[in-house]
UniProtKB/TrEMBL annotation, chain A:
Subcellular location: Cell inner membrane
UniProt cross-references to Gene3D superfamilies, sorted A to Z: P-loop containing nucleotide triphosphate hydrolases
SUPFAM superfamilies: P-loop containing nucleoside triphosphate hydrolases
The keyword Transport is assigned to this record: yes
Domain spans labelled ABC transporter: 6-256
Protein name: ABC transporter ATP-binding protein
Cellular component annotations (GO), alphabetically ordered: plasma membrane
Protein family (similarity comment): Belongs to the ABC transporter superfamily.
Entry keyword annotation includes Transport: yes
Membrane topology of this protein: Peripheral membrane protein
Alphabetically ordered keywords of this record: ATP-binding, Cell membrane, Membrane, Nucleotide-binding, Transport
TrEMBL record, chain B:
Localization of this protein: Cell membrane
Gene Ontology BP annotations: transmembrane transport
Cellular compartments per GO CC: plasma membrane
Superkingdom of origin: Bacteria
Matching PROSITE patterns: ABC_TM1
Protein name in the entry: ABC transporter permease
Species for this entry: Roseicella aerolata
Spans traversing the lipid bilayer: 33-55, 105-130, 272-293
Keyword Transit peptide carried by entry: no
Membrane association type: Multi-pass membrane protein
The keyword Transport appears for this protein: yes
Cross-referenced Gene3D superfamilies: MetI-like
Family: Belongs to the binding-protein-dependent transport system permease family.
Signal peptide boundaries: none
Automatic annotation (TrEMBL), chain C:
GO terms for cellular component: plasma membrane
Gene3D superfamilies recorded: MetI-like
PROSITE patterns for this protein: ABC_TM1
Name the UniProt record assigns to this protein: ABC transporter permease
Pfam family membership, one: BPD_transp_1
The species this protein was found in: Roseicella aerolata
Domain ABC transmembrane type-1 span(s) in chain numbering: 94-307
């Protein structure tokens, strides 16, 4: 049996700052299979981006992976040398960033930035690398790719730039793509196009995809599985339809409740009271209890991750057993 | 401030309101290097002020000089019984005394030109900001022109036409430096002018001079202090350079630059001290001022504040 | 691009005109032009004749036009001391100054860029802190004094390098150059380093600040996510971005370097324009002073123009704006 594309086990990524240790990612586990999409959902500061960077080994000091395993096709990335990691990055594991305006180097032409990616991992001729770059641009729906190759990033719109970034990620047909809120900065119509393309590409190449977002509606239409993060921990995970229809964790319930939708027209929007806690001095026990409507004395003890239904995990001692109308 | 005296008990001290000045002092003191610079500069300034009382010799009094004592090595005892710790120059002048008096001239010229340039520049900058329109663009064109031209050259040319002399050096330095102050004041004043409190003051029909002096100018002070500190160091260096080139102060009142120039020809025969020690004095002065200025800039720059 | 160029050229011409007026007024407002433009040794009849020949009896605005006309024809007066056209005198000495200034600029880049790059990539290492302390010193050290100390150590004490002069020169393109002979190059080392002292510090600081800023950019992280080697990221992605501000400032500083070579040339008796102007000031050879000033102004404007164009070539964003 082949191992899953990515299996993250008890990952801890901590930032050792002068003010104290920030546990940005604290005991996170999930699995992504070939051709599957995992939606990693949470508010800003919940540790979802740091999780993504940890997988690529791109956590900058003072942060570092303090524990756990990142098994990529069975191989632990956490223990890999920087050079071995570099050979995987952009080759077997690719990443797409949030702001397409910032991810392309403004003073280098598109062809330079694409060809160097090909040449970093494969010994091919410059001409062949260029051919690959042209094909990749065509794949993501950029018209007249030959011409666009000679352009500079500032000559592209935001949506086009994100397509270029996706094309760069696809150059080596990676086994895993980590997409860190790639559509947040884009218009809604462009967002839809990019989502559709991402889905198609995963299906075509069998690429596993981790889609990091704070937007539940994006995940609903795209992901197979979902992991909800709060204050550095995964608080709930499972198949996307089940989690969205029958959330277990009060935080997930709150998140779903805050999404405006047609069905709830006229009702006041529900919101989660309070704000995300500072990761620097996190209270012991459940991090969400200060904002939780169901909090009780027992929540001061750290709740364990438990399987409440088959394939449905949550980190809560009193989950919503019945379906809640969301 | 006046109610809390220095003798207040510690408990009262803890309860004291943090005044902007107090915060400024404590933030400045965060850099030990800057504090050191301040202390060193204070000592230098004190030495310069007290020159007639602490210098072993009056280097301008030709009667005290003995040509027989010329070019003595550091530490030698001269004919008059004085130990020349830093040696003597070709005239038999005690180098230590020469440096102490030289510092006096360098500091006077540096600080004097900086203050004058500040007055001229700040007034023109304020005028530009307040008058706007043609006046503004004319003044700012002049500023641009001045700043695009190297200070050393401009000063050189002015002195070439005016001739040597302390006053002329000060004039030259003011001409090359005013633009920095003008630009600083105009920039700050333009920003402040748009603030509500100025509008409020104008609505109250306060007289213009009151708005300028009581409201606008105090806000321009922090950047002016920073620019001023740096410019004093620049002026001292520039004066030394001009004097070294023989275009600055007259031979009769040697500044540090002229002392160094005097030692130039003896350098090749290994008599290093005539140029070396005045240079060290100059270096220490400039570095200490720059250290203070660097820290002032960090502390007074609102953009760096969170 | 053409529109951009044309606009810059017109601006440059306007500044030259303004400066010529300033120089003219400087000569005429401060002191007696007769004294400035006519040799003090001339007798009364010669003076009268010269006053007429120079048009000093005309109204001021007409005199300015004459001055301008002469300047356009390359006539900036004759040196009292050398009895040669002032312009020719300066042009003869220009190669020496140019090669010194270019040498200093090259030295500043060769020394400053790697040090600044290192300090930017490893901001917390001891060596980086040393580099930064050194750069503060480079700003504070009085250039002429450092020059003297260089002479004392390397020429007098160690005897490694010649102390003064240009050494052997070779004639290429009708001008004499030192940097093409070993002896000339040896003569050039100390003055060039001395002149570049300030610029080295400047390049170090600019490079370090640029590297630190650029390293935080998303595109650098993206480049790492693409699996590029650290060398490629540093040398291509980071370096090309910081090169823009560094080139601009170093280019703009080139004029300042030429101006400041006045000091270095005096210390090292380097026979360039700077030495000439100091000597001329000391003997009040005013036509040379006027000519020097006009040439320097022209030089400055040209340098600014070149920098602007280079900048627009290096940064594609500027280039686009020029087109629009």
């Amino acid at each position: 049996m082949t191992p899953p594309t990515l299996q993250v086990r008890n990952l801890r990524t901590h930032f050792f700052t002068r003010a104290g240790v920030v546990k940005a990612v604290d005991d996170v586990s999930f699995t992504v299979d070939r051709g599957k999409v995992l939606g990693l959902v949470g508010e800003s500061g919940s540790g979802k981006s740091v999780t993504g960077f940890s997988i690529l080994g791109l956590v900058d000091p003072p942060g570092r992976i303090a524990g756990g395993q990142i098994l990529f096709k069975g191989q632990d990335l956490a223990g890999l040398s920087e050079e071995a990691m570099r050979q995987l990055r952009g080759n077997r594991i690719a990443m797409i960033f949030q702001d397409p305006m910032m991810t392309l180097n403004p003073v280098l032409r598109i062809d330079t930035q694409m060809i160097e990616t090909v040449l970093a991992h494969e010994k091919v001729s410059r001409e062949e690398a260029r051919q690959r770059a042209r094909d990749a641009l065509g794949q993501v729906g950029i018209p007249s790719p030959e011409e666009r190759l000679r352009a500079y990033p500032h000559q592209f719109s935001g949506g086009m730039r994100q397509r270029v970034a996706i094309a760069i990620a696809l150059l080596h047909k990676p086994d895993l793509i980590v997409a860190d809120e790639p559509t947040t900065a884009l218009d809604v119509t462009i967002q839809g196009q990019i989502l559709a393309e991402a889905q198609k590409l995963c299906a075509d190449f069998g690429t596993a995809l981790i889609w990091i977002t704070h937007d539940l509606s994006v995940v609903a239409g795209l992901a197979d599985d979902i992991a909800v993060m709060y204050a550095g921990k995964v608080v709930e995970q499972g198949p996307v339809t089940q989690v969205l229809d029958q959330p277990l964790h009060p935080y997930t319930v709150g998140l779903i409740g805050s999404v405006p939708s047609r069905n709830k027209r006229g009702e006041p929007l529900r919101q989660i009271p309070g704000m995300t806690p500072s990761l620097l001095n996190l209270p012991a026990g459940c991090a969400f209890r200060a904002r939780c409507p169901r909090a009780e004395a027992r929540c001061a003890e750290p709740p364990p991750m438990a399987e409440y239904r088959p394939g449905r995990h949550a980190r809560c001692i009193h989950p919503y057993e019945e379906a809640v109308a969301a | 401030m006046s109610s809390t005296t220095a003798g207040a008990p510690p408990a009262a001290a803890a309860a004291r309101v943090e005044t902007p000045f107090r915060r400024f002092v404590s933030e400045f003191a965060e850099s030990r290097l800057a504090l050191l610079g301040l202390v060193v500069f204070a000592i230098i300034a004190l030495v310069a002020i007290l020159a007639p009382w602490i210098a072993p010799q009056n280097p301008y009094d030709l009667a005290q000089l003995d040509i027989m004592d010329g070019r003595l090595e550091p530490g030698s005892v001269g004919g008059s019984g004085i130990t020349h710790w830093l040696g003597t120059d070709d005239q038999g002048r005690d180098m230590l005394s020469g440096i102490i008096y030289g510092l006096r001239i360098s500091l006077t010229v540096g600080a004097g030109s900086a203050i004058l340039a500040c007055l001229v520049g700040a007034s023109l900058g304020m005028l530009a900001a307040y008058a706007g329109g043609r006046t503004d663009s004319l003044i700012m064109r002049l500023v641009d022109l001045q700043l695009s031209f190297p200070a050393i050259l401009a000063a050189l040319m002015i002195l070439a036409f005016l001739g040597k002399g302390i006053l002329n050096v000060v004039i030259a330095l003011v001409v090359v430096e005013w633009a920095y102050y003008a630009r600083t004041v105009r920039g700050t004043a333009l920003v402040e002018r748009r603030r509500e409190y100025i509008e409020a003051a104008q609505c109250l029909a306060l007289p213009t001079h009151r708005i300028i002096f009581r409201h606008l100018l105090p806000n321009c002070l922090p950047p002016l202090i920073v620019v001023g500190t740096m410019q004093i160091a620049r002026a001292i260096a520039l004066e030394a350079t001009l004097s070294f080139l023989g275009l600055g102060v007259p031979i009769t009142e040697p500044s540090l630059g002229l002392l160094i120039a005097n030692g130039y020809e003896y350098m090749l025969s290994g008599k290093y001290w005539i140029s070396f020690y005045p240079g060290i004095a100059l270096l220490v002065t400039i570095v200490s001022i720059n250290l203070v200025g660097d820290q002032l800039r960090d502390v007074l720059n609102p953009r760096l504040k969170k | 691009m053409t529109v951009f160029l044309l606009r810059r050229l017109i601006q440059a011409a306007a500044v030259v005109l303004a400066m010529s007026l300033l120089v003219f007024l400087g000569v005429y407002a401060i002191g007696d032009p007769v004294e400035i433009l006519i040799s003090p040794e001339a007798d009364q009849i010669e003076r009268e004749r010269a006053i007429q020949a120079l048009g000093l009896d005309l109204p001021l605005w007409q005199q300015y036009l004459v001055f301008l006309g002469n300047a356009l024809r390359g006539d900036l007066g004759r040196s009292f001391v050398f009895n040669e056209p002032a312009l020719q005198l300066i042009l003869q000495r220009m190669p020496a100054t140019l090669e010194l200034a270019v040498g200093a600029t090259v030295a500043a880049l060769i020394i400053g860029l790697p040090l600044g790059l290192y300090a930017g990539l490893r901001p917390n290492s001891t060596l980086s802190k040393g580099i930064m302390a050194g750069s503060i010193l480079g700003f504070s050290l009085p250039t002429f004094w450092v020059g003297l100390m260089l002479i004392m150590v390397f020429a007098v004490q160690l005897g490694w390098l010649p102390s003064t002069g240009r050494g052997e020169t070779v004639e290429v393109l009708g001008m004499r150059w030192s940097f093409l002979t070993a002896n000339g190059l040896a003569h050039m080392v100390m003055p060039a380093i001395n002149l570049s002292l300030f610029k080295i510090s400047l390049v170090i600081r600019l490079t370090r600040a640029g590297v630190r800023e650029t390293m935080l950019m998303d595109y650098v992280k993206f480049a790492r996510a693409k699996g590029l080697s650290p060398t490629r990221i540093t040398m291509v992605h980071v370096f090309k971005n910081i090169l823009i501000p560094v080139v601009t400032v170093v280019g703009l500083e080139f004029g300042g370097t030429i101006a400041f070579s006045v000091v270095t040339e005096s210390v090292f008796a380097w026979p360039g324009m700077g030495k000439l102007i100091i000597d001329s000031i000391n003997v009040l050879d005013r036509p040379v002073m006027v000519a020097y000033l006009m040439i320097i102004v022209l030089m400055f404007i040209t340098i600014n123009l070149i920098v602007d164009i280079t900048y627009s070539l290096l940064d594609p964003r500027v280039r686009l704006e020029g087109k629009a």
